[in-house]
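I have been asked to look over a protein record a colleague put together. The record follows directly below this note.
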Amino acid sequence: MDEERQQKLAKVILICFSDANIIWDKPLQKYMEDDPEGYIPFTKLASLQRFRKLQASANDIKEAAPLCKSRLEVNEEGTALRRIKPFVKHRTETLEEYSIYIEGLPHDKTVQDIKHILTEHVGPVTWVHVPIRVFRGFCFVEFDDIASVQKAVDTLNQPLSDDLHLRVMSKTEYLRYKQEYLDLMEQRKQDVQALWAEYQAQEEKNAIEELPYTPGIIVLVTRLDPIVPRNSVKFALQKSGVKVAYFNYKKGIDRCHVRCETPDDAKTLATFFNKQNLKQKDKDGNITEAEPDEAIRARIISGQEEATFWESQP
């Protein structure tokens, strides 16, 4: 095969494997998907219409393939060809190593305008991705090869005209800066949360010191037997192992407030009756197992309910 035909065939091969063509070329997509590594046998390429029109055989395509080595590679067996750069079928983002982040573009520029600027100063553009609905002068641009990324960084950071000064970096570098920023914001958030927690703890401490009573020691106990003597209720409460300092049980009422000596005692009392299903067995204060809807329940009162209780005390 002469050099001119080889050059022409290499150009067709590159067009065949370009993003712009693969998006619409369903048979080529299928050939790529048939192989786990994305290789397409030369025999299958030769069966495509564009190569049949050129009367190019599998050997002809294989012979022209080395001229495409910047973007395509042949397998070890020398029987198939694939892209070096992966093809993304349903893309929502640019490929990082093939892409740049660019800002400083006039807001009235279209995607086609951006492609024209980049193609003129750097080279072929695969895709322009504007990450927001309304263009604000920044976007991501993907090229056909990695070399174009460095060329774009070297070229486009220089003034292109009196009114066009761009800032450009590789997408990899952009993502690194972005992650550093997010990490910094997260650290600041944690610092603020820590300061706020410290402030709240101090406020709570100050509030407790100003209270005329010890908070967290009053327990409301419900589902008591309303017909047993007062001492029977006291004996039942003390089955929890907590010393009851005071309780306001009155016969005929199935609930009462219990004042414990410490907040820990209050927690112990509430936990004892809430983790078990127990009820009063007899007037001697003995307790026994009960159905959940009949069992004694207890909770520590707080806030306005607690303040109201203490205000009602003589």
